[in-house]
Design goal:
Radius of gyration: 15 Å
Structural class: alpha+beta
Oligomer: single chain
Order of helices and strands: HEEEEH
Bound molecules: zinc ion
Largest sheet: 2 strands, antiparallel
Shape: elongated
Distance between the termini: 29 Å
Number of helices: 2
Strand content: 35-45%
Length: about 60
């Protein structure tokens, strides 16, 4: 799989991550987002778990809105 953004510019860079929203991204185009997810486990106190996800720049911008 190749980076989607690089492919749009005519380059074929191997992808290192998958944008959760739109597809594959290379290191130059990937942004790793860490956010806390609130969990409410059954019969256990609520907990916050840090979750990482990979986004390309356009999608990261769309998410942070
Ligand atoms: Zn790229
Ligand atoms: Zn994306």
């Amino acid at each position: 799989m190749h980076c989607l953004d690089c492919h749009a510019q005519g380059a074929t860079t191997p992808a290192v991550g998958i944008c959760r929203a739109c597809g594959a991204v290379c290191t130059n185009h990937a942004r790793v987002i860490t956010h806390e997810v609130h969990r409410r486990p059954f019969l256990a106190p609520p907990a916050e778990t840090p979750v990482r996800s990979v986004r390309c720049f356009p999608c990261a911008g769309a998410d942070s809105r």
